[in-house]
Amino acid sequence: MPVSDARPDTARRGRPRGELRLTIALWIALVATTIPLLRVVHSGAWLPGAALLMAVLLMVGFALRRRRRMPAIAVTLTELAVWTVAITGVFLPETALLRVIPTGGVVQAVPEIVQQAGQEILEGVAPLAATSSLSFVIVAALGLLAIALDHVVLTARMPLLAAVALVIVWLIPAIAVPAGVDVVAFVVLAAAVLFLIRAETRTRETSVARAGGVSAVALAIGAVAVVGAVIGGPVLPPPTATAGGAGLAASIDASLDLGDDLRQPNDVTVLTFRSDAPQLPNLRVATLSLFDGEVWQPDRPRSVELSETAFDPVTAADGIRITEYRTNVDVSRLSSAYLPVPYPAVGVTGLEGDWRAVPYSRTLLTGQSNARGQRYEVVSQVPRPTLEQIRGTSARMDDTAVDVTSVPADTPRSSPTRRVR
């Protein structure tokens, strides 16, 4: 009897310590999901602010469960109250009562802030500036995510469901801004999720099980899975469209990665177009002028709403003839936020969805639609100088909307060229 009575007491004394470990593990996993956001939004006060808010919310939940023994619904409601006060005090103190209590003005301001953030995402190009509206949306959303997962992990004891949610949140920035695999961010997330699952498992293990090789086996399996994904993931062939039937649609990576483009195993028709020009024009989706030391990236000039006046007419020196052509494009199997258009475009009609124009490069992009299935007509104007006019003109570069002359400060100097005979 004394032995059997002691074991429940030990379990009761160990439970708070296990829950503290589990709370810390959940916070680490939540912070790990914010790393890919840095490719969408520049780092700023939102990053430590979100980490601090999530820590406060999780610790409030832990304290209420341990000290007050409050029911789950009361814990969640208290966390929501803390979240509301914190968000109001940081972002909307001017219209709040005592600078932290929401009022009608706060409620009316929130939709406007969210709409402003959406407009900035729609018009801008990643990575976006960390404006107050974007910071509000990110911090508030991460706080709500922390509250939801606190209930899932600490109350419902379903760490695998929380892991799925964390992976989905982690993938959203990677999908929004296509780029190479961020190995460091992936390893951090994988380790955090494994730690979370292990921390939850330990709250239900007996001391005998803990003394066994469970931790070693779990660590070994996790290490093999992470290493296998890091090594094997990049070498797997990307999905390609098939030449018929219901295959995957081809996509466009706006960064300059010609090697992957030239190594596609199959020829796939992604669009067809016809033009009244004497020669079929080249189609442009983006211009690349930003070099990060490894890859050329698209320009980041501001876009405008697509309209009849979005693109200015093409101009040329006096006496140079400008000819107008029309090109009809039918996109069948190209899934892209960039729209292929002949250069230099001066007008586009027939598009469906919300498309925006980049006047500097005469290109079109979207944050809510897709190039697949679009049928549209593009009007382009091409200068047609004579040979004498070309010889009588000197090339020059006017001021441009993007910097095309400088390189990153840490770009290595090119080595001297050596001739081999």
Question: Layout of SSEs?
Answer:
Blueprint lengths: L1 H32 L12 H23 L3 H20 L12 H20 L8 H24 L3 H18 L6 H20 L4 H5 L2 H22 L14 E2 L6 H5 L8 E5 L7 E2 L3 E4 L4 E3 L5 E2 L15 E11 L2 E2 L2 E2 L1 E2 L2 E5 L6 E3 L4 E3 L9 E10 L2 H5 L30
Parallel strand pairs: 1-8
Antiparallel strand pairs: 2-7, 3-10, 4-5, 6-12, 7-14, 9-13, 11-14, 12-13
Helix pairs in contact: 1-2, 1-5, 1-6, 1-7, 2-3, 2-5, 3-5, 4-5, 6-7, 7-9
Q: Can you walk me through this structure?
A:
The structure is a single chain. The chain is of the alpha+beta class and 421 residues long. It has helices at residues 2-33, 46-68, 72-91, 104-123, 132-155, 159-176, 183-202, 207-211, 214-235, 258-262, 387-391, and strands at 250-251, 271-275, 283-284, 288-291, 296-298, 304-305, 321-331, 334-335, 338-339, 341-342, 345-349, 356-358, 363-365, 375-384. The strands form 5 sheets. The chain has a 4-stranded antiparallel β-sheet with strand order 2-7-14-11, with no helix packed on it. Strands 6-12-13-9 form a 4-stranded antiparallel β-sheet, with no helix packed on it. A two-stranded parallel ribbon has the order 1-8. β4 and β5 form a beta hairpin. The longest helix has 32 residues, at 2-33. Mean pLDDT is 77; it is low at 1-16, 206-214, 228-248 and 415-421.
Query: What does the oligomeric state look like here?
Result: single chain
- Which overall shape is indicated by the principal axes computed on the Cα atoms? elongated
Q: How many strand elements?
A: 14
* Sheet with most strands: strand arrangement: 2-7-14-11
Low-confidence stretches: 1-16, 206-214, 228-248, 415-421
Q: From the alpha carbons, calculate the radius of gyration and give it in angstroms.
A: 28 Å
Give me the number of helical elements: 11
Give the N-terminus to C-terminus distance in angstroms. 93 Å
Approximate helicity band: 40-55%
